[in-house]
Automatic annotation (TrEMBL):
It comes from the Eukaryota. This is F-box domain-containing protein. Residues 285-333 form the F-box domain.
Length: 432
C-alpha cells in the first residue's frame, strides 16, 4: 500500500494546492473536448433512448474539430488533473501549502497538555513536517505523531493556518463579538485575528469526537470534496485552493459596480439578478398579504438567507415589503446572515450617510436586490471563477467551522463563553 493524502480539518482541502495549478492555460483542444462533452450530455438528455443520435457522426465531427487546434501546450492528462492557471495562479494557491497541527502531549505532566505546532507542511504516510511549536506542553518533536491516525490515542489534527484564523473569527462571532471587517481587510490577516483565547484542550476534544480517516466528520459544503487516496484536482474546482483571506481589489470594484447598478435610474424592481421570477401575474391571492405585520416580522427574522430569498420569490407581498425596508435593516441582515462577507460590510460601513439610502426614498430600487446578489455571487459551486472565488471559499470554510462552534462552546467553561477579546479592536462586543 502506498502513501495517502490527509486534508485540512477545517476546510477539507489539500495541503498541496500550488502544485496542482497548471503550467499553461488550457489548450484550445481541451476546451473543444469539454464543449463536445457538454454537447453530448445535452443530446442524450434530449433523447434518453438514444434512438435518434448518430454516435459515429458525432465522433467524426469531434475529431474533425480538433484538426486546426493547438495540440502543443499540455497533454490531455495534465489538463484533466490540474487547476487552470488562467483561473487561479500558483501565487494565489500558496496559502494552501501551509499546515499547522493541534495535538496532545500525553507525557506532559499537567492536565492541560494540548499544543499548537509551528507552521510546516504535510508529509507521507500521515506524518507532518513541522516543528512542535512554543507551547509549554509541546513535545520535543512530532516524529511519532500521525495525522488522523485511528490507531493512535492522540492523533494530530492538521489545518491551514488561515482556516484556523477563520475558526477563531467564527467562534468570536458566535460569542457575540462583531467583526470589524475593514481593519481585517486592510491589515494583516494573521495579526488581526484574536489569538490566545482558544482553549486548546477543549478544541482538541471537539476534533477528537469528530475524527474520521483523513478529515473531520462534518459537512464541507459544495462542491463535493474530491477525496480519494490522493487529492483529485478536478478542473472547475479551483475554488478549493482559492485564498479565503486575501483582499481582492476586483471584488471591491465589483461590489461598487453592483451597488451603482442597483441604484441607477434604469434599475427596475424585478430582480432578474436574483433568479426570482415575476409571479405577480400568476398569483391571484397572496396568503401572506393577510398576515398581521407583527407575525410577518417574526417569520422573516427567523429565516436563513436561502429561505428568505425563496419566500421573496413566492410572495409578491413580502417582496414588495422588503424592497421598501430601510438601509439599517439590510445592513443588519448582512452582518448576521453573511458574516463572512467582509468586503460588503466594509463597503456598507463606508457609505457616508446611510439614512439617505432609505429604500422608501428610492422607488424602484431595492437593497433586497443587493442582498440577493451578494448571496448568489458567493455561493460555492462547481465552475466558479472570478473575483469572488476566494470569498466563496471563505463562506464554505466559515460554514464548516460553524459546525464546530456549538460543540466547542458547550465544552468550555461558562466564564470563557463570552470572554472579551483583549486585542487591538478586531472584535468588540455588541453590548459595548
Ligand atoms: Zn483549510
Amino acid at each position: 500500500m502506498g502513501s495517502w493524502d490527509y486534508y485540512c480539518a477545517l476546510c477539507g482541502s489539500t495541503f498541496q494546492g500550488e502544485r496542482f495549478v497548471s503550467r499553461k492555460p488550457r489548450t484550445a483542444r481541451y476546451l473543444w473536448r469539454k464543449q463536445r462533452e457538454a454537447d453530448f450530455d445535452a443530446l442524450v438528455a434530449a433523447d434518453p433512448l438514444n434512438g435518434r443520435i448518430d454516435f459515429r457522426r458525432f465522433n467524426e465531427e469531434t475529431a474533425a474539430g480538433e484538426d486546426n487546434l493547438d495540440n502543443e501546450s499540455l497533454s490531455s492528462q495534465d489538463e484533466d488533473d490540474t487547476y487552470d492557471c488562467s483561473i487561479i495562479s500558483k501565487e494565489d494557491a500558496t496559502w494552501s501549502n501551509n499546515l499547522q497541527c493541534l495535538g496532545v502531549n500525553s507525557d506532559y505532566p499537567f492536565r492541560s497538555n494540548a499544543f499548537l505546532s509551528d507552521i510546516g507542511c504535510d508529509d507521507e504516510f500521515g506524518a507532518v513536517s513541522a516543528e512542535p511549536g512554543s507551547d509549554s506542553s509541546a513535545p520535543d518533536d512530532l516524529d511519532d505523531y500521525k495525522a488522523y491516525d485511528q490507531n493512535e490515542n492522540y492523533p494530530l489534527f492538521p489545518f491551514h493556518p488561515k482556516c484556523f484564523q477563520l475558526l477563531q473569527q467564527t467562534v468570536a462571532f458566535q460569542r457575540g463579538f462583531q467583526i470589524k471587517a475593514k481593519s481585517l481587510l486592510d491589515g494583516d490577516w494573521e495579526l488581526n485575528v484574536p489569538g490566545g483565547d482558544f482553549d486548546k484542550d477543549v478544541l482538541y476534544r471537539v476534533f477528537r469526537n469528530l475524527q474520521s480517516d483523513a478529515q473531520l466528520d462534518i459537512s464541507y459544503g459544495e462542491p463535493e470534496l474530491p477525496h480519494d487516496q490522493y487529492w483529485l484536482a478536478n478542473p472547475g474546482e479551483e475554488l478549493f485552493i482559492a485564498d479565503p483571506g486575501k483582499r481582492n481589489p476586483h471584488a471591491m470594484n465589483a461590489i461598487d459596480d453592483m451597488w451603482r447598478e442597483i441604484h441607477s435610474p434604469k434599475s427596475g424592481l424585478e430582480p432578474d439578478i436574483t433568479g426570482i421570477c415575476n409571479l405577480n401575474l400568476k398569483l391571484m391571492d397572496d396568503p401572506f398579504a393577510h398576515f398581521p405585520l407583527e407575525l410577518l416580522l417574526i417569520i422573516i427574522s427567523a429565516l436563513q438567507p436561502r429561505s428568505l430569498l425563496n419566500l421573496m420569490q413566492a410572495s409578491p407581498h413580502i417582496r414588495r415589503g422588503l424592497s421598501r425596508t430601510s438601509f439599517s435593516y439590510w445592513k443588519r441582515r448582512f452582518e448576521t446572515d453573511l458574516p463572512w462577507f467582509y468586503e460588503v460590510h466594509s463597503f456598507l460601513q463606508g457609505i457616508p450617510s446611510p439614512a439617505s439610502f432609505d429604500a422608501r426614498e428610492l422607488p424602484g430600487k431595492s437593497l433586497s436586490h443587493f442582498f440577493a446578489w451578494a448571496y448568489h455571487t458567493t455561493t460555492p459551486r462547481w465552475g466558479l471563477h472570478g473575483p469572488f472565488m476566494g470569498i466563496a471559499n471563505r463562506r464554505r470554510i466559515w460554514e464548516a467551522c460553524n459546525q464546530l462552534v456549538g460543540p466547542y462552546l458547550a465544552l468550555v467553561k461558562p466564564e470563557d463563553r463570552n470572554t472579551e477579546v483583549e486585542e487591538d479592536g478586531q472584535f468588540h462586543s455588541d453590548k459595548s
